[in-house]
Amino acid sequence: PSEVESFITLPQKEEHWADPDIGKIHRFDDAEIIERWPTHYPIPTYFDIDYNKHVNNVVYVRWMVSAMDESFLEGYEPAVVDVQWMHQTFRNDKVQVETGVVSRTDTEAELVHSIRKDDGTILFEANTKWRKKPQ
To answer: I need a surface site. Which of 65, 80, 128, 134 has the fewest CB within 10 A?
Structure first.
């Protein structure tokens, strides 16, 4: 971390780039889903694994986006991504990504996401907000 800090400027403690009181993440299992997208089954690969032999945190976000409908991704751009990593996963684990739409208008959408192992253990959850791309 200290090496990274030498390359970027961190905001002063009194400067907040995000609301520190954003509340708890909305869990996939508790969400009122109006549209559920097909479950995606990514396979962890050699390049998903970090030095500690577990799936790198950024890979969960890639899996989440990879599970999304392409026409949605072509028409919307992310506005807010709120994530929570709950458990580690490893190369030989079987995982599934679930995505649900909780609200959608002509200009924006809110989604919930869950990544879990085949035994039901929740590895990662996210809430995302999307806005329509400008034409």
So the answer is: 134
| Residue 131 burial (CB count, 10 A) | 14
Structure tokens at 110: 């809110």
Tokens 């559920």 — which residue?
A: 36
Q: Distances from the Cα of 132 to the Cαs of 14, 71, 87, 109, in angstroms? A: 33, 12, 32, 8
Q: Which amino acid is at 63?
A: W
- Mind listing the pLDDT tens digit for each residue in 75-119? 999 998 899 999 999 988 999 999 999 999 989 999 999 999 999
The model's pTM is 0.80
Q: d(Cα 82, Cα 16) in Å, to the nearest integer?
A: 16
